[in-house]
Write a structure and sequence with these properties.
Elements lengths: L1 H16 L10 H24 L4 H47 L1 H14 L4 H11 L3 H13 L9 H24 L6 H18 L7 H30 L1
Helix pairs in contact: 2-3, 2-7, 2-8, 2-9, 3-4, 3-6, 3-7, 4-5, 7-8, 8-9
Length: 243
């Protein structure tokens, strides 16, 4: 009884500890890129304009325009990219579906050879391929996974990607604008809030990576801060030169 209990305990411990984080990036990629891009690009845009010693009103209008233009651009680009990828995958699935319908024996043999190449005994590989090929849709899914590396039932949605990119970019771009919209007249509150946001985004991303939260946060803070300093310098230079 003690052995059984020990085995059960070990099994439960393995089950509880043997979990993995989401590495596909289906939700993470557009959200992270959108928020980071919104923060960095609008912060850099606003500091660049502020470096030219323009009015408070001009900085706010520039930030709002940057938010709207960037969010729509991100959404359109993400939609086009994901839609094109999905259409390519669907075209390849159509080819595979046609081959399964016209040449089922050849496709079954191809699947068996694939399993044999991975170390499965020939007789067992042929039997597994035969059983899996009974259902055409199951066979299509298996061939798609093995040959194309895709899951036909889990294709990305262009609409979801576009909406998430739009929302995350707009949210990120809003941070440096927020102090101005709340009545601030100086640049430093906007820069401070944006840098805090960059650090926070980097720290949150670390939750699904192997990096520590502070390293990821500082890295994003440094990159965003460098972009703001650079554009402020450019704005100051050209503002002086043009003026």
């Amino acid at each position: 009884m003690s052995i059984i209990d020990t085995d059960a305990t070990l099994h439960e411990a393995h089950r509880d500890n043997h979990t993995h984080r989401d590495v596909n990036g289906g939700w993470l990629r557009p959200a992270v890129f959108g928020a980071m891009d919104g923060l960095v690009s609008n912060l850099a845009l606003m500091t660049g304009v502020a470096g030219g010693e323009v009015s408070h009103r001009t900085i706010v209008i520039t930030g709002l325009a940057g938010l709207a233009a960037g969010a729509f651009s991100m959404a359109a680009g993400e939609y086009t990219s994901v839609a094109s990828q999905r259409e390519l995958v669907e075209a390849e699935l159509a080819v595979e579906r046609r081959e399964l319908r016209k040449h089922p024996a050849d496709e079954e043999r191809e699947l068996a050879e694939l399993y044999m190449s991975r170390g499965v005994e020939p007789e067992l590989a042929r039997e597994v391929a035969r059983q899996l090929s009974r259902d055409p849709e199951q066979a299509l899914e298996i061939h798609a996974r093995e040959e194309l590396g895709i899951d036909p039932s889990d294709l990305p949605s262009p609409t979801v990607a576009a909406v998430s990119s739009f929302a995350s970019f707009a949210l990120g771009a809003l941070l440096p604008l927020l102090p101005y919209l709340l009545g601030a007249s100086a640049l430093w509150p906007a820069v401070l809030l944006a840098l805090v946001g960059l650090f926070g985004c980097g720290a949150v991303v670390a939750k699904v990576t192997a990096r520590s939260w502070w390293f990821s946060g500082v890295r994003q803070l440094a990159l965003g801060g460098a972009a703001a300093v650079l554009t402020f310098g450019i704005g100051s230079f050209f503002g002086t030169a043009i003026g």
